[in-house]
């Protein structure tokens, strides 16, 4: 059972940049469910997309896997012994906990957990790749290269699922969706102090793009079509089809 996220509940003398360390890993399921509207819907749908698009004897890459929610969803939804799932994360704390979860369950499809940067992963024989709220933590100058890397490693007809927090083109519209997201977090029990301190921690770490930038980047990499299948406030999930 997940611990409650109270990492920013008391005043901090100095708010450090956000890190996916042991403290975050310990409360991550609670943090993510209270911060991202529709997160469980996204995870479930990733599994449903896998059931429809993952081919037999191919690889599925979960880049920035955190505790492996997307990987587990793919494993459950695909036929038994259908695919190999490679779950990659740069955080030692996340990888250790994800590995323990993998070892605790008998999975329909195997999950290999690796510590490393998504940018360094060799994508091969893939019918699906996933970046679930990962690209926003990768330095912007490196984003086009990793998208092209994923495209090149996908088989014809393969899909890339990317979920991201986004910003609106116009400041007024951006204020509207940001305010809705703040209300969502307040309704989930976060105080103004917690919201403010976490925002400060993420300011230099999570750099978000607009939908148009994401779409242009995916098209430039070579994807034939980009479908926004989910959108709520300033969060979206896309399926890019090779």
From TrEMBL:
S-adenosyl-L-methionine binds at residues 39, 64-66, 132, 199. Keywords: S-adenosyl-L-methionine, Transferase. It is an enzyme of class 2 (transferase). GO terms for molecular function: carboxyl- or carbamoyltransferase activity; S-adenosyl-L-methionine binding. GO terms for biological process: tRNA wobble uridine modification. Its EC number is 2.1.3.-. It holds the Pfam family Methyltransf_25. Residues 60-158 form the Methyltransferase domain. It catalyses: prephenate + S-adenosyl-L-methionine = carboxy-S-adenosyl-L-methionine + 3-phenylpyruvate + H2O. It comes from the Bacteria. SUPFAM superfamilies: S-adenosyl-L-methionine-dependent methyltransferases (SSF53335). Homodimer. Belongs to the class I-like SAM-binding methyltransferase superfamily. Cx-SAM synthase family. Catalyzes the conversion of S-adenosyl-L-methionine (SAM) to carboxy-S-adenosyl-L-methionine (Cx-SAM). This is Carboxy-S-adenosyl-L-methionine synthase. The gene is cmoA.
């Amino acid at each position: 059972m997940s611990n409650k996220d109270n990492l920013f509940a008391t005043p901090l003398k100095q708010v450090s940049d956000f890190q996916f360390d042991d403290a975050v890993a310990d409360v991550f399921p609670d943090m993510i469910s209270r911060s991202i509207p529709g997160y469980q819907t996204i995870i479930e749908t990733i599994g449903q997309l896998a059931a429809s698009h993952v081919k037999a004897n191919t690889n599925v890459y979960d880049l920035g896997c955190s505790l492996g929610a997307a990987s587990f969803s793919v494993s459950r939804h695909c036929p038994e012994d259908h695919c190999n799932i490679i779950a990659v994360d740069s955080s030692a704390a996340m990888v250790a906990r994800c590995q323990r979860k993998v070892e605790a369950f008998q999975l329909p499809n195997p999950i290999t957990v690796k510590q490393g940067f998504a940018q360094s992963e060799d994508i091969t024989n893939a019918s699906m790749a996933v970046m679930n709220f990962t690209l926003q933590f990768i330095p912007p100058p490196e984003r086009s290269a990793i998208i092209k890397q994923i495209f090149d490693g996908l088989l014809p007809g393969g899909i890339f699922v990317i979920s991201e927090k986004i910003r609106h083109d116009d400041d007024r519209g951006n204020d509207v969706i940001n305010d809705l997201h703040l209300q969502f977090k307040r309704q989930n029990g976060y105080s103004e102090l917690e919201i403010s301190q976490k925002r400060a921690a993420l300011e230099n770490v999570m750099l978000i793009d607009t939908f148009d930038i994401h779409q242009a980047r995916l098209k430039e990499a070579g994807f034939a079509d980009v479908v926004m299948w989910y959108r709520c406030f300033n969060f979206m999930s896309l399926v890019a089809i090779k």
